[in-house]
């Protein structure tokens, strides 16, 4: 008789042995690396994704151009740490091979190998049988040389004179196709120049702050990546929009903002103008919130305080070239403010009533006096006397 525990152990062992055979699935590529042409100094990345059960192991191999069968395995940190390999094993295996600061010698065939064959690392086995393979060819070309003009600082304060940016393609692996200009990552329309001309220029006739930015001349090639050079055009920030004043009631929230153009993008600060000097924003109450983006800043003040918050606020945009500031007047009205128009009307009514009453009081005796009283003394009499007479006269009627 077998001990029940031993029986259970045997069953578990048997199941574990059988499992790979029951649901095993050979390794297969979901995503295989793609061939690319690159320029010296640039970076490339190759992706490889495999399925299989158990999850396949992934390796990267390399062979030089025209030596297709002399593959060597690549390791993370190889080639003076220019090679990186990042692999994650989940239900699928995913691996990314990256090589930075490319040289001409990095050209060649890169191979992603995957296997979940239990015999895959057995040296007596032929790897061609136990591993599946996917290849990509990387061609590295000498980066073309461009002689570009230096960075420019726009002279906005003095006399405005045109500025011209230029590029000259002085060396290239092949004849280029055409060229164009970009500003801040967008192509500038109507700047395409074709083949023959390796010299290209871009003129800014009337430079303004918003003409500053990152300019780029781009040369295109038939079967190779674009070549480009960047020219920075800098200007001091120019504030294009802000609130002149903000009027709020105490307890409400206030929002003031400033917008700018000018490259490099400014850093923003807010201050309070105190006569001829400045005060930093006092945030001890925690009611001040400043949010700034590259060319926009906003200050929010919550739960306005009528004694401390009103005043002149200044936004200050500052970059390497200079700085600009604009002010906003914040007025805070008391809670009662909305009642003022009503109180005004009320006051008017009261005054009117008083005037009418007084007028009436002065007028009536005169009308009646004609009857029997002499005019002279009545006019000089005190009002009290008038009243008495008035009442008497009425009674006699
Ligand atoms: C680039 O061009 C300028 C004139 O546009 C010239 O003075 C300079 O020598 C050139 N530099 C190179 C490296 O060719
Ligand atoms: C552009 O570069 C070429 C080759 O270096 C040179 O011969 C040519 O004079 C340059 N053109 C200009 C306008 O600087
Ligand atoms: C400019 O050149 C760099 C480096 O070669 C490249 O990575 C980038 O894609 C190029 N940009 C354009 C717009 O051609
Ligand atoms: C003011 O204080 C609040 C609360 O502590 C904080 O969240 C906010 O960032 C501060 N604002 C400024 C401008 O420092
Ligand atoms: C501010 O910069 C963003 C991108 O950085 C741009 O889309 C936007 O038009 C700019 N706004 C102004 C007023 O220059
Ligand atoms: C803006 O801020 C900068 C740096 O904090 C300062 O040097 C400059 O005086 C300020 N500019 C104005 C106009 O207040």
Automatic annotation (TrEMBL):
<keyword id="KW-0325">Glycoprotein</keyword>
<keyword id="KW-0472">Membrane</keyword>
<dbReference type="GO" id="GO:0070593">
    <property type="term" value="P:dendrite self-avoidance"/>
</dbReference>
<dbReference type="InterPro" id="IPR003598">
    <property type="entry name" value="Ig_sub2"/>
</dbReference>
<dbReference type="GO" id="GO:0007411">
    <property type="term" value="P:axon guidance"/>
</dbReference>
<keyword id="KW-0732">Signal</keyword>
<dbReference type="InterPro" id="IPR007110">
    <property type="entry name" value="Ig-like_dom"/>
</dbReference>
<dbReference type="Pfam" id="PF13927">
    <property type="entry name" value="Ig_3"/>
</dbReference>
<keyword id="KW-0524">Neurogenesis</keyword>
<keyword id="KW-0677">Repeat</keyword>
<keyword id="KW-0770">Synapse</keyword>
<dbReference type="GO" id="GO:0050804">
    <property type="term" value="P:modulation of chemical synaptic transmission"/>
</dbReference>
<dbReference type="GO" id="GO:0060255">
    <property type="term" value="P:regulation of macromolecule metabolic process"/>
</dbReference>
<dbReference type="GO" id="GO:0007156">
    <property type="term" value="P:homophilic cell adhesion via plasma membrane adhesion molecules"/>
</dbReference>
<keyword id="KW-1003">Cell membrane</keyword>
<feature type="domain" description="Ig-like">
    <location>
        <begin position="20"/>
        <end position="130"/>
    </location>
</feature>
<feature type="region of interest" description="Disordered">
    <location>
        <begin position="368"/>
        <end position="397"/>
    </location>
</feature>
<dbReference type="GO" id="GO:0051239">
    <property type="term" value="P:regulation of multicellular organismal process"/>
</dbReference>
<feature type="domain" description="Ig-like">
    <location>
        <begin position="144"/>
        <end position="232"/>
    </location>
</feature>
<feature type="signal peptide">
    <location>
        <begin position="1"/>
        <end position="24"/>
    </location>
</feature>
<dbReference type="GO" id="GO:0098632">
    <property type="term" value="F:cell-cell adhesion mediator activity"/>
</dbReference>
<dbReference type="GO" id="GO:0014069">
    <property type="term" value="C:postsynaptic density"/>
</dbReference>
<feature type="domain" description="Ig-like">
    <location>
        <begin position="237"/>
        <end position="331"/>
    </location>
</feature>
<dbReference type="GO" id="GO:0030425">
    <property type="term" value="C:dendrite"/>
</dbReference>
<comment type="subunit">
    <text>Interacts with ATP2B1; this interaction stabilizes ATP2B1 and increases ATPase activity; this interaction controls T cell calcium homeostasis following T cell activation. Interacts with XKR8; promoting its localization at the cell membrane.</text>
</comment>
<dbReference type="GO" id="GO:0005886">
    <property type="term" value="C:plasma membrane"/>
</dbReference>
<keyword id="KW-0130">Cell adhesion</keyword>
<feature type="transmembrane region" description="Helical">
    <location>
        <begin position="339"/>
        <end position="359"/>
    </location>
</feature>
<keyword id="KW-0812">Transmembrane</keyword>
<dbReference type="GO" id="GO:0030424">
    <property type="term" value="C:axon"/>
</dbReference>
<keyword id="KW-0393">Immunoglobulin domain</keyword>
<protein>
    <recommendedName>
        <fullName>Neuroplastin</fullName>
    </recommendedName>
</protein>
<keyword id="KW-1133">Transmembrane helix</keyword>
<dbReference type="InterPro" id="IPR013783">
    <property type="entry name" value="Ig-like_fold"/>
</dbReference>
<keyword id="KW-1015">Disulfide bond</keyword>
<dbReference type="InterPro" id="IPR003599">
    <property type="entry name" value="Ig_sub"/>
</dbReference>
<comment type="function">
    <text>Probable homophilic and heterophilic cell adhesion molecule involved in long term potentiation at hippocampal excitatory synapses through activation of p38MAPK. May also regulate neurite outgrowth by activating the FGFR1 signaling pathway. May play a role in synaptic plasticity. Also acts as a chaperone for ATP2B1; stabilizes ATP2B1 and increases its ATPase activity. Promotes localization of XKR8 at the cell membrane.</text>
</comment>
<dbReference type="InterPro" id="IPR036179">
    <property type="entry name" value="Ig-like_dom_sf"/>
</dbReference>
